[in-house]
Amino acid sequence: MDKYHIFIDMKELRKRLFIDRKTSAKERYEIINLAVENECDTLVFSLDDKFFKSKNRNLKYIKLIKQYNLFIEAGGRDLSFLLPGRMFFFHRELFRMEQGKRKKKYHFCPTNPKTRYIIVKRAKYLFARSMQSVTVPRIFHLLPDEGHENTWCACPACRAFSPDEQYIIAVNSAADALAGLDPDARLSFFDYGTVRETERILPRENMFHLV
Question: Which domains does the chain possess?
């Protein structure tokens, strides 16, 4: 039962339980009880979770979620998922640079226009698929890779930006895609603890930071 994280949104006072997309069917029922016991009011499924992909969804599971009046949201540690790893072999320039070499793991090169184009296209597809769910989410999350929040690109263009600025550049692209689908939907961003007003890269208006 270690495939979850709890985040609290101090603005809306929502207590969210993030569910790993590899969580088994049996664990999912246990997690609902765990959420209730921990006074969580929101379940967050990965954008790649079968909860959103399957057309034959478990109605009994959804009924249980509604029984406890739990909100459904989508996303989590899914940011790197927006740039498929299979592209590394032919398009290494899209991925982050470390000591002069491109790396497949942990994030990508956010200043590359081609990278941002793919992020927008991929995010739009994933957001739209989630919105077709029986329980339509209106709030989404794209958090950096756990334990590698500061592992970003060191190419000549990206070196001008701090890790949190590179992160916001990337998430802003996804936020633009979300705004095009639903102007009222919102996207959270990871709180690096910086004073946002002093940063050169500001988050989009449809974004909010997650504690």
Answer: 4-80+115-153+163-210 (3.20.20)
